[in-house]
Amino acid sequence: MKAMGKRTLIFFALALVTLLGTTPAVAQEQRAEAQPSGGAMIADAVIARPLLAAATVGGTAVFLVTLPFTALGGGVDTAAETLIKTPAEAAFRRCLGCTVSRRADEL
Asked: Is there a contact between 87 and 56 (Cβ–Cβ < 8 Å)?
């Protein structure tokens, strides 16, 4: 009986140490996700934002050219969302270096 008590105590002690050891790593991972690195910000500003702005302009052009056919098919809202709104939000509404675009009303 005494040996079983020691084993149980050792098990719970190891479980506690394991849980306490992973908590800072999880918190650091969440902070890293919330705050992008400097390299990610530079790459976003120099490469991604200009490409996304060009995709917005190109998507708008494609949307306007295909609008009569899209209107006949009834998919104007879907086409506008995909070709214009999604790249525009990624280019102009997300934080510098972030990978996810969040609207102000979603926060």
From this structure: yes
Whether residues 52 and 100 fall in one domain: yes
Q: How far is it, in rounded angstroms, from Cα 6 to Cα 76?
A: 69
Three-class SS of the chain: CHHHHHHHHHHHHHHHHHHHHHHHHHHHHHHHHHCCCHHHHHHHHHHHHHHHHHHHHHHHHHHHHHHHHHHHHCCHHHHHHHHHHHHHHHHHCCCCCCCCCCCHHHC
Q: Is 89 found in the same domain as 45?
A: yes
Q: What is the pLDDT of residues 25-69, one digit of tens each?
A: 544 555 545 688 989 999 999 999 999 999 999 999 999 999 999
Check whether residue 40 and residue 56 sit in a common domain.
Answer: yes
If asked whether residues 40 and 84 sit together in one domain, one would say yes
Domain containing 21: what range?
Answer: 1-35
